[in-house]
Specification:
The complex is a heterodimer of chains A (464) and B (102).
Chain A: H1 3-23, H2 27-52, H3 57-79, H4 85-109, E1 117-118, E2 121-122, H5 124-152, H6 165-186, H7 189-207, H8 215-237, H9 240-263, H10 268-272, H11 280-284, H12 298-306, E3 310-315, H13 317-322, H14 325-337, E4 341-346, H15 356-363, E5 371-373, H16 374-377, E6 386-390, H17 399-402, E7 421-426, E8 446-450, H18 453-463
Parallel strand pairs in A: 3-4, 3-6, 4-5, 6-7, 7-8
Antiparallel strand pairs in A: 1-2
Chain B: H1 5-25, H2 32-43, H3 47-54, H4 65-92
Helix pairs in contact in B: 2-4, 3-4
């Protein structure tokens, strides 16, 4: 196949990828968008086969390996529970990163196959692009592996920090630039391996100081990196489909990280440099005196809700942990039968990844037009009778609006306290991720329901 | 003077970043998780490079030191392509509108 025709077909597959993302602007068009993405991918793969034009034994092996990977992927996609979506996405990012590293290594060993020159005499521009692709790919890989381990609970979600961490990271980054520079002048394969090793190390070091609840930012950031790695390889291979896709994915991940940071009123660097650690001491101890809390049982909660005319549900990560979304949906069905208006309020950083709560509610068959974002619904709390907080904590803390000393001051929060009464499902009074007390617990109109989210929701349904 | 083809690729790259910027801002927040899984799937178009690498072996030799990495990358990218698109499809199938019955 002529190089021009394949270039045009790659361009078409890039355009289809743009349409795939475009489709996600509304749930109705999203399925069609996904189809565009699949078509784009098929075109890219077929064009590559035709332009290489090597249908010998190697081709059979390619198909075999493709089938192996494909079946593993399909198996995972069908078996994975929706609550494990953050882990899955982190795991998938690591694969893209590692694939980028492998392609870069292969191109470095055998540049002739990619028209990049001969070993030891690779075109300068290609070598730089290759080095960038390999380095970013390696960072994506090791970073995603750490994120995966933290989300999966294999590794503690607590931030791991040590003295001189930031200086070490900065030095390693400088080292990467220096190695790339010498790699370009010497073409030494040892330097190439060292570059990859240092990049693996830095990906690891960047993610370990970041705590569990900051994972939405981390996952989005790694999403972005996987895009930049693909773009770097795209430049090496002079392939438009890869360049377009890399740019799309890179900017998509960057926007998501920005939205997540804004949802916490923190700067990107504040998150990346590690947790709430620095500001924690200022308000950690001063609110220690025992304050009275009203606690109730499922019966009380059912009574309050039965007499309400509108209820707003505020889900959070705790709902995902307790797998309470189906029980919640059943409770809401019962409420609706009693002509009670129910809506859901989702904070941008609820859960462990962007849109996490929405997927879980969708899984439980909650229609998406009952689910609202923070800005859409925040004014409705004042008119609602009951707010049912299930598994959320920091995102409802009124302290973010009242106490300038608080580490979460300025963070946009749901105005749950404006409701006539608040039902707060939680296992204990322990503070949330930010390590601060939630003033909402002690409000006059708050009723604490100390129980597992799923069990409590089921009990309420029984009592309705 | 002739323009280096690199400049054209760079132009495509920069313009795509802008396209991505505007397209992604128009994605509704409730679909941010499918957005991540589908971007993950499409970034696996890196399989293009993996296929070229895997087929780079000279006559008769299927597994050379460079093609091995290509084959490994094919497996990884294929997991992502199939896993990413299928899981996205599974998620999107769950987003339903309120039924207008009663």
């Amino acid at each position: 196949m002529s190089a021009n025709i394949s270039a045009i077909l790659y361009l078409i597959s890039g355009v289809l990828f743009i349409l795939a993302l475009r489709g996600l602007s509304s749930p109705e068009t999203s399925r069609q968008g996904n189809l565009f993405g699949i078509i784009g991918m098929v075109i890219a793969v077929v064009v590559t086969f035709l332009s290489v034009g090597n249908f010998t034994a190697g081709f059979i092996y390619v198909l075999i390996f493709l089938a192996i990977g494909g079946s593993i992927g399909a198996f995972i996609a069908y078996r994975i529970p929706m609550t494990a979506m953050p882990e899955l996405v982190a795991g998938f990012h690591s694969l893209v990163g590692l694939a980028a590293v492998f392609v870069a290594i292969s191109a470095f060993i055998n540049p002739a196959a990619f028209n990049l020159g001969t070993p030891g005499n690779i075109k300068l521009a290609s070598l730089i692009e290759m080095a960038i692709g390999a380095a970013v790919g390696a960072i994506t890989f090791s970073g995603s592996v750490i994120a995966f381990l933290k989300l999966q609970g294999i590794m503690s979600g607590a931030p791991i920090t040590f003295k001189g961490q930031h200086i070490l990271n900065a030095l390693l980054l400088v080292l990467i630039v220096v190695i790339t520079f010498y790699l370009c002048s010497t073409q030494s394969s040892n330097l190439f391996w060292i570059l990859i090793a240092v990049s693996f190390l830095i990906g690891f070091l960047i993610i370990i100081p970041i705590g569990g609840a900051d994972m939405p930012v981390v996952i989005s950031m790694l999403n972005s990196y996987s895009g930049w790695a693909a773009a770097g390889i795209g430049f090496t291979l002079e392939n438009t489909a890869l360049i377009i896709t890399g740019a799309l994915v890179g900017s998509s991940g960057a926007i998501l990280s920005y939205i997540m940071c804004k949802g916490m009123n923190r700067s990107f660097f504040n998150v990346i440099l590690g947790g709430f650690g620095a500001t924690e001491q200022t308000s950690g101890d001063q609110n220690k005196e025992q304050r009275p809390v009203k606690s109730g049982n499922a019966d009380d909660a059912a009574f309050l809700m039965k007499n309400a005319s509108s209820v707003i549900i505020v889900p959070g990560y705790g709902m995902a942990v307790a797998q309470a979304q189906h029980a919640l949906r059943e409770m809401v069905d019962t409420l609706k039968k009693n002509d009670i208006k129910v809506s859901y309020a989702i904070h941008p950083v609820a859960g462990r990844m962007p849109g996490h709560m929405n997927v879980l509610l969708a899984e439980a068959n909650v229609p998406y037009d009952e689910v609202f974002e923070l800005e859409e619904i925040n004014n409705d709390f004042a008119n609602a009778d009951v707010a049912f907080v299930i598994g959320a904590n920091d995102v409802t803390n009124p302290v973010a609006k009242t106490d300038p000393q608080s580490p979460i001051y300025g963070m946009p929060v749901l105005d749950v306290e404006k409701c006539k009464s608040v039902l707060f499902v939680k296992r204990s009074l322990s503070p949330g991720y930010a390590g601060i007390d939630n003033d909402l617990f002690y409000k006059e109109n708050t009723l604490m329901l100390f129980a597992d989210a799923k069990k409590m929701t089921e009990d309420i349904t029984k009592n309705l | 003077m002739e323009i280096d083809p690199f400049i054209f690729r760079l132009s495509i790259f920069i313009l795509s970043i802008f396209v991505g910027y505007y397209v992604v801002w128009s994605v509704t927040p409730s679909l941010h998780t499918p957005l991540m899984s589908v971007t993950n799937a499409i970034s696996s178009v890196i399989i293009v490079g993996a296929i070229i690498a895997a087929l780079s072996g000279s006559d008769g030799v299927v597994f050379s030191s460079s093609s091995i990495y290509g084959f490994l990358a094919i497996v990884l990218a294929a997991v992502n392509i199939f896993g990413g698109f299928l899981v996205t499809q599974r998620m999107l199938a769950m987003y339903k509108k309120k039924k207008k019955d009663k």
